[in-house]
Amino acid sequence: MASTSLAFFNITTTYRRQQPISAVAKLPPPTLRHHSMPPEKVEVFKSLEPWVSKHVLPLLKPVDKCWQPSEFLPDSTKPVNDFMDEVRALRDRTIGLPDEYFVVLVGDMITEEALPTYQTVLNTLDGVRDQTGASPSPWATWIRAWTAEENRHGDLLKTYLYLSGRVDMLMIERTVQYLIGAGCDIGVENNPYLGFVYTSFQERATFVSHGNTARLAKEGGDPILARMCANIAADEKRHENAYVKIVEKLLEIDPNETMLAIGNMMRKKIVMPAHLMYDGRDPNIFEHFSYVANRLRVYTASDYVDILEFLVGRWRLEKIEGLKSDGRCEQDFVCGLGARIRKLQERADERADKSRQRFHRRFVKLKLNIDDTATKKNSDCKRKGSFGDVRESNTQPAADGYGGVFGLNEQMEKESSSNSKMTVKAMVQKSRNKTRKYLPKPDSSSQKAKGIMLRDNYVKGQRMYQVTDDLIVTPFFPYGLQFFHP
Ligand SMILES: [Fe+2]
Ligand SMILES: [Fe+2]
C-alpha cells in the first residue's frame, strides 16, 4: 500500500493563493462585535451555577471510567518483537481503507488537535470563563474537564495515524501548528448565549463525523479503528447533551435572548472550528478537506440541515412562548430555515446535474474517445475497500494521469471505446489547449507525489475538482460546507 503522502496539503491553487505568513495561517476574518451580551445578563449565568453543578457536571465521566488512547494502541511496554507484531497488525488492518478515508481522518484529527484554541474560545465567554485558570466555579470546572476529555481524541487519532504509516506526519504537524497559531473566529462575540448554541451544533457535528468514520473503518476492515472512532463519537454525544441542556435551560429562563442567539448563529452559519486550517502551501486546504468529507458522506451539506432540524425539534423552538417581536421573528426564521436550505440544495443539485449532463454532451459532440486500456483501468477503479461510489485512489492513473478525469459516464465510455481514434492523452491535450489559460500552473513536486492529491482546475471558467490521481472530478461544486441562507 502506497503511503498516503498528504500532498493534497501542497496542491496548487493559484487562483486564490495568498502570501504565506510565517507563523500563522490565513488572517482570520475580523470579528465585528465583542461582548454583545448586556452586562446585566452575567447574573443569569451566575444564578445558573448550582444548576450546572447538579445537571451538567454529572455528564462528565470520572477519569478512571474514561477510555484512554493506550487501550487502542500497540503496547510499547511489551518486548520489541511483540510490540512490532502489534504495529504490523495495525498496518495490515488499514490496508483496506482507501486514501480518501485518511484525508478525512487526518482532517478530523487536525481539528481535534487544535484543542487549545477551543478552550481559549470558551474562556472568552462573559460570565462563564475560568477567571484564574483553576477557578472552582462550575462553569470553569466544566470547561477544564471538557478540555481534558477532548484531549484524548487528538492524542489517539494522531498516534494511530502515525503508526499506520499512511500519512505524512511532518505536513500534519505543521498544519496543526499553523492552525493553533491561527486560532478561530466562530462569531460568538464573547457571548455565552451564542457560544452555547455554537457548541451544541458543533458537538453534534463531530458526533456525526466520528460516527461515520467509525462506520467506514468497519466497512474497510479495521474494527479497532472503528471502535476508536465510535468511542470518540460517544464522547461528542455526551458533550452535545451537556450543551443542548444548557441552551434548553436558557430558553426556559430567558427565552427571548436565547432565541435571538439561535437566530444570530444560524444567520451567520455555523463555521467549522478548523476553518483556518493551513499547511503552509494550500490556502484552500480546509475547503479541500471538506469536499472529501462531503464526498465520503462523513460530513455533508445534508448533515448540516439534519443537525439544525434536530436542534429545532430538541429545543421545541416552534412552541417557545413569551417572546418579544424580535424573538418571534427569529423563531420563524430558524424554524423555517431547514426547509429553505433543503430547497436550495435541491435546486443546486438539479443545476449541477444539468450542468454535468451538458458537460458530458459536449465531450460526446467533440467525439473525444478513450482508449481501451484507459477505459479498463477506469472501470477497475472500484475495488474492495473503497466506499460506495468512491473510486480507489491509489490505482495507477490511466494515460498521463488524467484518465477518467472528465468523469465519463458509462454510455460515453461505451461510445468512446468503440471508436478509439483518440486516446485519453490526446483528449486531455486537446481540452488543455482550449482551456490552458484557465489552468493553474502545476506544482512539479505535487505532480510527482503519490497518494492523495487535490487539484483545482478550470474549464471555461468552471471550477473542477480532481480529488485523487486517478479520477473524481465534479465539474461543478454546488456546495461543500458553504451554505447560503435566504
Ligand atoms: Fe473531540
Ligand atoms: Fe467535541
From TrEMBL:
Names of required cofactors: Fe(2+)
Region feature Disordered, mapped onto this chain: 430-449
Alphabetized UniProt keyword annotations: Fatty acid biosynthesis, Fatty acid metabolism, Iron, Lipid biosynthesis, Lipid metabolism, Metal-binding, Oxidoreductase, Transit peptide
Keyword Transmembrane helix set for record: no
Family: Belongs to the fatty acid desaturase type 2 family.
Stated name of the protein: Acyl-[acyl-carrier-protein] desaturase
Upper classification of the organism: Eukaryota, Viridiplantae, Streptophyta, Embryophyta, Tracheophyta
